[in-house]
């Protein structure tokens, strides 16, 4: 797919077609290999976590011309990806106040 085709897809708000396309899927694998399958955000903090996704550092909607640029990609774990986008992780959504347990049994 040519850059102009990618730009048209993104501008027409057809991101799923872009993300399901073979160009993105193969570039995604290149980025993961380049980053040794490690979350680069965790790595910068001295931790290790397996990368689950590849993030566009400059957002695709704002910079469609960089959608297939390897230099604009960063491998991240889902937690870091959600943090960058300001989304709560599934763990945060599932947290509840601890249930009171009465240890006395009558």
What is the topology?
Layout: H1 3-11, H2 15-20, H3 22-34, H4 40-44, E1 53-56, E2 73-76, H5 78-84, H6 90-94
Antiparallel strand pairs: 1-2
Nutshell version of this structure?
The chain is 42% helix and 8% strand. The chain has 106 residues and is mainly alpha-helical. The protein has a two-stranded antiparallel sheet with strand order 1-2.
Please supply descriptive tags for the structure shown above.
single chain, 6 helices, 106 residues, 8% strand, 2 strands, two-stranded antiparallel ribbon
Describe this structure in words.
The protein has 106 residues and is mainly alpha-helical. 42% of the residues lie in helices and 8% in strands. It is built from six helices and two strands. Strands 1-2 form a two-stranded antiparallel ribbon. The longest helix has 13 residues, at 22-34. The radius of gyration is 19 Å and the shape is globular.
Distance between the termini: 71 Å
Structural shape: globular
Describe the sheet with the most strands. 2 strands, antiparallel
Number of helical runs?
6
Strand order, sheet with most strands: 1-2
Summarize model confidence as the mean pLDDT: 86
Write down the secondary-structure element order. HHHHEEHH
Structural class: mainly alpha
Low-pLDDT ranges:
none
Rg measurement, Å: 19 Å
Helix content percent band: 40-55%
Q: Strand content of the residues, in percent?
A: 5-15%
Beta strands, count: 2
């Amino acid at each position: 797919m040519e850059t102009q085709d990618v730009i048209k897809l993104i501008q027409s708000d057809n991101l799923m077609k872009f993300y399901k396309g073979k160009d993105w899927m193969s570039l995604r694998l290149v980025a993961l290999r380049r980053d040794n399958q490690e979350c680069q955000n965790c790595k910068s903090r001295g931790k290790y976590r397996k990368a689950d996704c590849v993030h566009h550092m400059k957002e695709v909607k704002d910079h469609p011309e960089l959608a297939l640029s390897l230099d604009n990609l960063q491998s991240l774990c889902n937690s870091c990806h959600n943090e960058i986008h300001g989304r709560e992780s599934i763990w945060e959504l599932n947290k509840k106040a601890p249930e009171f347990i009465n240890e006395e049994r009558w």
